[in-house]
Structure formats: structure tokens, C-alpha cells
Batch of 3 targets.
Target 1
Amino acid sequence: MSFMKLKVISTLLTVINFINNNNKSGQWWQTLHRTMLRGVLGKTFRLVGYTIQYGCIAHCAFEYIGGVVMCSGPSMEPTIQNSDIVFAENLSRHFYGIQRGDIVIAKSPSDPKSNICKRVIGLEGDKILTNSSSDFFKSHSYVPMGHVWLEGDNLQNSTDSRYYGPIPYGLIRGRIFFKIWPLSDFGFLRGSPNGHRFSDD
Amino acid sequence: MALSQGWVRRYFKAFCKGFFVAVPVAVTFLDRVACVARVEGASMQPSLNPGGSQSSDVVLLNHWKVRNFEVQRGDIVSLVSPKNPEQKIIKRVIALEGDIVKTMGHKNRYVKVPRGHIWVEGDHHGHSFDSNTFGPVSLGLLHAHATHILWPPARWQKLESVLPPERLPVQSEEE
């Protein structure tokens, strides 16, 4: 599942600030007449300064606190439908508070530029049933140290740890906990429909 | 009294303003452009920490260079350890995706590095916790590219991107 961060916000804020400042310092033609070159230069520097400042604030917010993301793809149905908008928080990743059953955003292990959105089925040391398709060949595997086991809620249509194995904890970007769009589904996310996939111990 | 209160208030205000500019800018700079880190352990001898335990080098980590996850064979990079997410490790890139490497002590004699992964090894074979133990690592764990040694001053130098000839990939992607 891929998603987009709304980094446009920082640019917008900068523009608003710029307009406000413009109004405060008198009529625009007066400003222009007074010190044309200095004014323009000052404005440019101020604009660059505000851009850097808000850009940095946006980076810190998206990196350490969380943000709004748009999910796409069918692998998390029915919990998250295609093109739903959700809140993600990054604090639990920094404090190592990811638990079984949490829905997380992680970097794809085969392509670091794209992101995936899956549910954590097992933490390190858990015993995982790797193929549930038949009762005859039940094979278990243990999640190694520092890794997590991720699976989509839509088991039939999801490329997840059953395909590429456990992924390192360091790839996790954030935890999704709140859905804001569509409005009919507004609220905290539901539990996993595949409860039997969780390990017993 | 009123004057001094006003002064305190103004000072506090200016401090807050500066604080809210400086902290995000500094954090972003350290996250996105470059930072420095102390290297611990003997796994990269003789390139780093040649003196053993009594000296530890401080290296410059360039984040900007790896923003698109582009690394070359021979680069010294820092990664989030796949076994322990709280730890960063510093290793040399031996092979990129698609290469076939001859391993040293891994369970398979030859390994093809999968898509989006790299093979990393310490220069000090046998004393390094690297891909020979945990296999190829995902590029998403890449943290930074170590470009210079900054401390101690006598060892100030650029870290060259050299691949030991005996560690060349058996078969590389381009061929």
C-alpha cells in the first residue's frame, strides 16, 4: 500500500504568513516606493527563512509525532478500504511500544521507497503458523530477534510476511490508529478479522 | 519593577521564538543532512578504530548522500541493526541487489542478494557481526554514508570507497 504525506501544508503556512506580513507593513506601493531593492531582498530572505522553518517543523512532526496518510490497495480490507485516510503516530515506534494486533506502516523490504501497511501478527520470539491453507502441512516458524511478522487482513490478496518472511523492526515507520475518511467509518480501527492467526502463547 | 518584568517577559519571548526555530532546524539538519557518531568495537579494523579499545574514532555520517538509497560497492555505511533496532552498526557494502556473493561462514556458500537488499561486511573478518550472520539486509535500514574520520585529529581523513579484491561479487548485475 502506498500513501502520500501532506507536506503541502508547510508551504501553505508560509504563503499565509507572507501575505500577513505584507499587510502589516502598510500599503504595498508605499513599501515598494520606500526601499525597493532592500524590501524585495528582505522579503526574499524572510520567505526563505519561513520556508526552512516550517519545513523543518513539518519534518519533525512527520518523523516523530505522526501525520495523516492515505492508504491504497486491497491488502487491508475490510479494516481499511482502498484510498481511506487515516492518522498515523510514530511515538510508539520510538518508544518500542508496538504490540500484536497493531496496524503499522513499514518500508517495503524489497523497495525502500515504497511503504506497506499491514497488521503485526507476531513479535520477536513468537511462533507463527506459516501456511494455513491446508491442515495436513502445518509448518511453524519462529520470528527472529529484532523482527516482526506482518500480515494483511485480506489474507487472499496480500503480499506480506508469508511471502517475504519476517521484517526487521527498523523498517516500521508508524502505527495507524484512527480513521478519518470515509466519515461513515470515522473512529478507532477495528480488531483483526483473522484472530486465529495470532499465536497462542 | 514593571520595567524589569517587561524585560524578563521580552527575554522569555525571544528565547521561546529562538527555541522553536533552532530545535526543529537542528533536528532536521541532523536527520537529513549530516551528523557525527562515535564508532565502537573492532569490527571495522583496520579502516576504523585501528588502535583497538583504547581509541575510538568519530566519523561524519552523510545522510544527504543516501536520500535515494543509492550506495556503491565498497562504501562504508551505517545501518539500523536488523537484530536490535536500538543499535546502529557500521559496515562496508560488499554487494548490491542481484549480485551473487561468496559468503564466509554463512549457511549457504553462495548467496544471491535479493531485490532492495545489500550485503554488508565488517573489514575485520571473524570479529564482525555482519551479513554472514544475519544475511542480506534491506535498504530501508540504511541510515547514512560514513564519509570522513573527524577525530582524533591525527587520523583526519576521507574514507575511501574500496572493495577488497577478494570480496568482489562472483557475478554482478551488470554483466
Note: Residues 2-32 of chain B form the longest helix (31 residues).
Target 2
Amino acid sequence: MNAAQQDSLNDLRLKRILQLNERLKEELNRERIHSSEAAEALINYAQETRDYAVSCVWGPLQSEYDPFLKQGTSGKTHGKLHGAENTGCCVIC
Amino acid sequence: MLKTVREECEALRTQIVAVKSSLFDITLPDAARQVKPITDFRLKQQHTLRGHRGKVYSCEFSHDNKLLASVAQDGFIIIWDVYTSNKVDVIPLANSWVLTCTYSPSGRFVASGGLDNACTVYRVNTASHASGNPRALCTFKGHAGYVSACKFRGENQVITSSGDLTCMLWDVNSGKKLQEFIGHLGAINSISINPQNSHIFSSSSCDGMVKLWDIRTNNCIQNFASHQDDVNSVEFFPDGNAIGTGSDDTTCRLFDLRADCQLSIFTSPNTVSGVSSISFSRSGRLLFAGYENGECQVWDVLRGDRVSCLNEHSSKVSNVTVSSDGICISTASWDSTIKIWSTT
């Protein structure tokens, strides 16, 4: 590699590191909140949003809103219930 | 000069680490100690959808949650009635080596992509098909590697991710590429559009990174680099302020965008299989994770506990999806079946 090629390579390296530094400065100046604040917001959202998959909080889906019951197909194919593993409450209905 | 800027680079990295650690004062499970654990968790297996003659790679609920589109390596997209398990439509694909499919918001189109390095949009409307219109509406060609994931952004745009290390934004009407997102150092496996802000999407990659992209500026705006192996799946938390990930390192993780850090990790000593797909329940309280060994584990996102394990597939669970109303969960598998679970 001759001197001109070496200079050109160094210029390219310099340009890339300068670009990287600009990105790192942006990242450093990013507005951040404490993880405790973020965790609290996620906890509030998860607890305040209706979710029938969490029946211990929101109760079971009422039968009039059950789309499978409306079609008359609920559990027709298999009808297995999977329960929480710590209670071992799987049943075949 | 080169030495000076390198030193400045190192100093900046050190400062970023210092700022992040000063703001990291608690993990999510520690913050949620007072939250009651989930008890009496139950899912009913409503249907086993049989019809594909190959590994099912992907499925997605329509936006009204009544239909499910699935794609398998038998070369077909099948549209299923979720509640009756009937097949509503079958779309033969030009290329059978498909990896992904997605529904448009109106339900009129599905898009799929795979090893032909292209993403094709198909009409779902059967009346239109009967009238002689071709099924394929347009094909996006431009990736130099397989298309691993695709998502509609509104009705007129599609975002794709690829093994060529890039994501691309496409226009459905013209079939042309609008933007390209370059930055990953490994094949990209999964993408997710922020449910609260469609200008932002995330991508996960074999380089172990998860990146956030802003379509308005065409730039990567945030990186998360905690995983030790390929990150196979990424999905936004329902409020759009965090993202969940699943990886070959056998863990799922939760990263908060505002705190710019990892808030939680979901794994157990018994978990030895890689995570292929994840999906949040409607509130984000539960994380459903499909594993290479055929299990679908259910995690309490707040407390970090494992709540349940659905173990009904005989091969890898390639895709887990929760319907937007939160009532149905689908698990698609390489055993060529899809199972529909309900909270009722």
C-alpha cells in the first residue's frame, strides 16, 4: 500500500469514527427516565387494561360475549382446559 | 487526529454506560412485588386446524379477529374461520418456500414472503377471485436475501425484513420500494410496528440486536444488545413504550424505550429450548412464548413468573399470536397444525 492509499484509508476511518461519535453524542443526550418510573407505568397499564386472559383480575368472559358459544362450537374439537401449573388443575371436559 | 477521536469515542461510551446505570434503580419483578400473582389461569383449546401438508410457519388474525391467515411450506395460504374452524379461502402461492404472512387492516389482502427473496400481496376477497381477477396484486422484489417477516403499515404500505440484513418499506399501489433501513450486522428475523405510533418499528436480528427505526428520518433511533444469540421474535408491549423479545439464548426479555434499558428477563433453569415467537396478551400482563421443543410457555410479565405451559404440539411452535380482543390465542407448529385457544 502506497502513502496515498494509506492517507485515503485513514481519512475514511476518521470520517467513520466522527460519524459514530455524533451518534454516541445523540445517544448520550437521549432523554431517559428511571427504570422505577418506567416499571410503574407498565404495571399501571397492565392492571388497568381489561384482559380476559387474566381471569383472576377481570373475571371470566360473560357467555353472551363468547364468540365460540355464539357459533355453538366451544370446545367441540378437543375441549381441553389448561390450568395454572402451580395448581395442577387441568381437566378434560 | 485519529487517536483523539478514538479516545473521544471511548469516553462517550463510558459516559453512556454511566448514565444508564445511574438511572437503573429497579427491575420490573422487584417493582411488581406487591402485585398479586396470577392464579387459576386457564385456556381452553377450542380447535385444531388441520389442512396444511407442511410446516406451518406463520399465522395472523384478521383485524376483526374472526379469521386467521396461515402459511405453510405446502405452498398455500389458508384463511380459517376462527370460531368454526372452517376453511374460508385457500390461496395457492407462486413460491412454496414461504416463511411469513400478514393481514391488511381491511382484511382484503394478505402478504407473504419467503426464500424467493420477495413479498407478494394477494387478494383475499373470494368474490373478486371468482370474477377472474388474479390472486396476486403485486410482488415486492428488491431484497438480496430471504424475506423473514412482513407487516402491513396501514392498507397501502408493507414493511419487510430480510436475511440480507435490511428492512424495506414498500408501496402497495405502485409495487415500488420507498425506503431501506440499513444497520443490522446479521439476518433480520422479525419486525413489529409500534401500535401507538406507526412511524416507529422494531427489528430483531441474528446479530443479537434489537433496533428501533423511525420511518420519518429513515434512521435507527435506539438499540438493545442484551441477548446472547439470535433474536427470533420482537413485539411491542401494547402501550408502545416497551418491547418484548424471544431468542435462541432460551430467554425472553422486556426492554423499556423510555428508560432505555432491559427491565425483565423470562427464563427458568428448565428452559433449554430457543424461543421462536412471542406475543403479549391484550393488557401486556401475559407473554406467550413459542419454543423450538413444541412448548408454549405463558409468563407473567410483571412478576416474571411462569404461569402455565401449553404442551400440545409435537414439533416446534413457529408462531404465537394473540387476537386484538384478547380472547383467542393461536399456536402454529411445524407439526402442520394450528391450535386455537380461548380464554373462555
Note: Chain B has one domain: 1-343.
Target 3
Amino acid sequence: MILVAVMFGWMILVFILAAAVAPLDANIEVPVDIGKGVIVTPADGWYSAEKVWDVGSGGLSLQKSGVYVAFVVEDYSGSNDELLSEQLAALEEDFQSLRILPAGPILVARDVPGLVALFSGTSKYWGSENELVVATTGGMGVVMLATASKGQLDQVQGDIKTMLDTLVVPR
Amino acid sequence: MNGSASDTSLGVTASPRLTHQFAFWLFIMLLAGSMMVVGLEQMAYLGLYPGAWLLSVVLLAATAVPAGLIIYRFDQFEPEPVSMIAIALIWGGVIALTFASVANSAMLSFLQHVMPALTVDSWGAAIVAPVNEELYKGAGLVLMYLMARAEFDGLMDGLIYGAMIGLGFQVVENIQYFMLAASESAGGEIGAVVSMYFLRVVLSGLYSHVLFSGLMGFGFAYFVTRKGQEPLTKRLGVFALFAAASWAAHFVWNSPWLESLTGGDAASLTLGIIIKGLPFLVFLAILAMFARRREGKAFARLMAGEVGTDTVTKEEFQILRSGRRRRRMLRQVRSARGPVARAILKRLMREQMNLALFHGKVESADHPALEAQRNVVRGLRAQLNALS
């Protein structure tokens, strides 16, 4: 009986501890200016992935539980469709086989229209599940790329949405 | 006891039937609950990655079965009952793994809210896994002791049961890792499983749960077998020391120390693994040799009255003392007199070794149970002689 009490008791104790600290947040997410006035605020628990994924000075890469996200901003005068096509064409080089789902509309920074496309395939650089978001406004293009192993991207969709929503883009 | 025909019928101490023990039924209940979790998980793996799952099972069986046999045979004078070995493996692979997984998730969630994300990503596994996994694997030792106290009569017993719990845990946990690798492989599932097998079994298999739980088992055996010989504080102290060693070995193994070294080429990866794991492995090997030597001495002491009689000759005693000599003798008999003679000789050796166990259990050298065991030995010798 003591043994059972210890086995279940320990489990209950760690559950209580986890529940007790749930409202706390040890990670103070600091907004990062990635250039051209575009500011990314990492969602809860995300931290720099610079050592793993170097996206250069005009971007920011983040990671959480094995999922990687990158935000990049560049001068761009084309449309969302054009930026999406260019990005996908560039990505194709990294894949032996690439499958892209039809792109859909999305709002970035609350009201900037953009496009989102999910893609997967065989690549030594990319995970099983990937997401691309593009948005063009005011002579610049903002790109977000996310890569994760199977089943993981879904787990962080809330975080990705938060980061896209809270993105600051100069108008 | 070890399957002697005469032991239980003559009343020499044997483990009470497992099914008569409350602890056994507790084990069954915990197993039933945990099996639902592990079983569903394995079914999901099989459904998602059938080829990778089957390959994982085959690869792990190919290494775990020989590893299990080596551990099992380490106690050459009193092999543990197969039923207890099975319980140890199942406890590790099903019950301990299930409880530890749930506790690991909750504790990781706790850490994520009190520590920076970067620290949790780097150190989370090192902090969480040793605490929970060693606790739940160790609980298996306690339950097994409650089931069959008589089976814990030496340090070697704890070491073997601990190592077996660790082996069970390691095998099922490896399947999880292999399936994770398969899920991340973007189509190259078989290659991912083989790579992970090389990393987790070939390169670092010796340093994993078998080692951690073996240390815990040794400490636990010291605590329970030295009752009445050593003060409680000393027994508790030694047990705590080995529990800490088991935790420390697991912590060091999971920690990001030497990550810069292991992040490079294959040679530096191997070097990092050796630096992290070898000291603890050497420590466990020394303990195992120590326990084995103690068993050897105890065997010689208990057999003293039999050596030079018609049950065990001096030459036979020298052969019985060494596993290598026993195997060589069995090979010689097989080639010279055939497999039947080998089988009889093997049983004769086992029954001769059982004489030592009988001496350890009975008060006098002419106890009826001991005499009956001598007759078993004489009968087998007569059978062997009749063959020639």
C-alpha cells in the first residue's frame, strides 16, 4: 500500500506542482526588430534558433520543442501571389520531392492580407510538416517559414498565429 | 530455488507461490492499466509506420535477447527464476515506463513555467528523467521483493533484477525513439530507424537503463540482504548512495555536457559517449565482479562438506566453480558422447550446484531434504554412466 501511495502520490505531486505554477511565465518575451520597422514578439516559450537556423540580419529564427520558425523581411514591390511563387520556387531546390497544398488567405499583423501554404516532401533540410506565410505591404515583403516533424506543427499553431497577429508592420 | 525436483516437496524453503502474494496481484492490476497505454501506443506505431515498427522490434530483439541472457547468466550459482525475470522486464517496459512518462510530462510542464525555455530545452531531460524514471524502476524492485523475498538473498540478485528492469524499460523506450525518428524522416523511415539503432543501441546501449537500474538494484539488495548484519542507518546509507549513483549516472548521460564534443563527427561523438558513460559502467562492472566473487566464496563454503564425496568430486567442484569450465566440459561431452549425455550432464551440474543452496537453507548436513537432493545427483550420475 505504501508503494502504491508513493507511485501515485509522486505523480499527483508533480501534477499539483505543474498546475500551481501554470499561471507563471519564466520567459519574458522581448519584441525583436528584424529590420525595416518589422517587429516580431516571440510567443511564450520560444527562443532563438540562430545557431541552428541562420537567417541573416534581416530575419529572426525561433525554436520551441523541436519546431523552428523564421521571420524574414525584404524590399519587395510585387504581390502576395508573386512572393509566394518565388518562395516556393526557392524551396523546391531543397526538396527531392515537394508537395504543396493550395494557398489560402490569412491576415498578418491583424489587418495585412497575406497568403499561407502548407508544404511537405522529402528533404534533408526540412521537417515533415512545413508552413509558409507571405504578406506584402508598403514596398516590403514579410515571410514566415515554419518547419516541424510529423504532428508537431499542429501543436504550435496557436503560437504561430499569436506571433503573426502581434507582428508589427509599418504601414 | 532452481527447479530441483525435490526442493518444494521436501519442505526446504522455497518462494511461496507468486499468486499467493498480494504484491503479485498489485503487479497484475498495475500491468493491466499500464498495458492499455503502452499497447495502444504500440498499435498506433504499427498503424503509422508498420515497416519501421517491425524493423525496430527485430533489431531490438536481436540485441536485447543476448543482453538479457548475459545478465541472466551472470549469477552462475543461483540463476533467478524465469518468472521473476519476466516480471522485472515487464515492470520496466510497461509499468515503470508508463508511470514515468506521465510524471515526466507533468514535471517538464512545471519546469517550463519556472525556468527559461532555453534552459528547459537543454537541461529538462537531465532533470526530469532521472528523478521519475529511477523512482518508478526502483519501485519495481520493492514490489518484486514483496512478492518473493527469498529470491533476494545476495547482492547479485538485486543487480540482476535491477538490470532486467532497466533492460525492459530501455527496449520499449527505444521503440518510442525509433518511431520518433521515423516520424521525422520525411519518407526515409527505415534509414532513420537504423541510424537511431546505431546511436542508441550500438554506441550507447551499455550506458543506458541497464546500468542505472543495475546500480539501484545493487543498493537495494544491500539494504534487504544485510538485515540483521548491519545497522539500519548503514543499510539505508548504502542504499541512498547507490540510488544517488543511479540518478547521477542518468543525469550525466542526459545532460548537455560535452554537447559541443558530441555534436561533431562520429569520432568525437563516440568520445563524448565514452566520457559520459564509461566511468559509471566501470563502477557497475567492479560491483558485479565483487558480487560474483562473493557468490563464488559462498558457494565454496557451502559445498565444502560435499566436495570429495560421491556427489561432487574435487575435479567436478573445480569445473562447477567456473562458467567457462562448465561450458567447455559440456562441449567436450557433446562431441564425445552426444547431445543426450550433454543434457544429462548439464542437469547433473545444476543439481550439484543446488546442493549449495540446500546447505544454505537447512540446519544440519543430514537433513532429509539435503539427502534427497544428493540422491537426485546420484541418480543423474548413474544415468550418465549408463550412457557410456
Note: The two ends of chain A are 67 Å apart (CA to CA).
